[in-house]
Design a protein that fits this description.
Layout: H1 2-15, H2 45-49, H3 58-70, H4 72-93, E1 98-109, E2 116-128, H5 135-201, H6 207-241, H7 256-259, H8 273-276, H9 278-299, E3 304-315, E4 326-335, H10 341-409, H11 415-449
Length: 460
Amino acid sequence: MKKLLQISLSALVLTSCTLGPDFTGASAPELPATWVNALPPGTDKHTLEEWWHSFRDPQLTRLIEGGFAANPDMVSAALAIEKAQSSLRATQSSLFPSLGVNAGGSNSGNFDSSTSHGRWNGGLSASWSPDIWGGTRREVEAAMAAVGSAEAAAAATRTALASSIAAAYFQWISAKESLRIAYEQLEYQERTYKVTQERHASGMESALALAESRSTIASTRAQIPAQQANIRSCETTLATLLGTTVDNIALKLPPQKVYNMVPSVPTGLPSELLRRRPDIIRAEHELHAATARIGVSVANLFPKISLTGGASSSAGTDFSQFWSNSAWNLGASASQTLLNRVALNEAVKQAELNQLSSMQNYRKTVLAAFAEVEQCLIEYARLTNQLPQYEVSRAANKESAALSLRLHHEGMADFLSVAAAERAWLSSELNIISTRQNIRLKLAQLCAALGGGWPVGSTK
């Protein structure tokens, strides 16, 4: 009997197979060899992994690394990975036999004598369902893909977080710069008002010009509280992204040469998106899992084999007889569903449809990623081309404002000319602040769109 079971077990192992389709990789849409709007040229992949270093701002680096360590979404993503790994280990354990043990004993006697009678027993039991059709192995395969999906989701969270922290920080810088410009404009307007007041006293300027000068000053002062509130709002946003409160962050405006610098874009090639973008990697893992689950459904169509075995022993008061009263048993069984075949067949069909849906989702994710990068490159190129022109305009308007004020002081220009030059100068200053902010924001978005912000290969 024992030899027969050994032969049967060997036959089961040797003839086992894995049903269902094998995953051979996702079929991505054909992408162009280069970006249509690849401007400026790309850099190496290590620059993209930690793109924020290209701004050469230690404060930005500190904020992003702090967010990686304490942001609740990052903590949740790490917990999701642990959960997926735990599920994988639990699934893998189904490939191996289970072993049980039991032991017990009793003792009895009566109150009239000091004698007692004992009974002791113990045993081992084992069971195993060999994975003949590969259903469990397909479940393990799907669980491994789920781990990869969770790791890719964590990478996507990290990528988005780095971009969000950078965006909030850049907005804070722009708000501080706008406040500086407001104070600078206010000082200029107060000088203009003083000159207009002197000219009005001497009859060289109308009361209307004096009133307009006061109105301009009041309007600028009214903007200052709103800009201060904007600064505090940016600080609160940053604190939330860092997983803390606003009183625990200390920000210092970096030198102008730091936040005015425009780094190059680490574009790379379109084909690199397939291994860089976490959402694309996640979609591929989900397609892999969906493919493996087809095999699980197909395996349920076939009989399930179970092998059981055990050993037991018992003894009375004389415990030395425990091993002499031992016994063993081995058995095998098979089960097959007969009356619910429609449900099983439909389960296979549903698994196949889920795979097709996952395939289309992967294709959609790739195309959306490509379009996102192209759109970011278009906007980035537009902004970087506009900035030099705005700088020329700013210099000319600032010179014009200074000249009009001097002419006004000398009585050769009226207040309306001075006010018009002021507005042109202020507009050009704000245009530069806005454009530089948008360049930095677009660069952060572009790096996130390219899949930057995490070390490639960490989900393998």
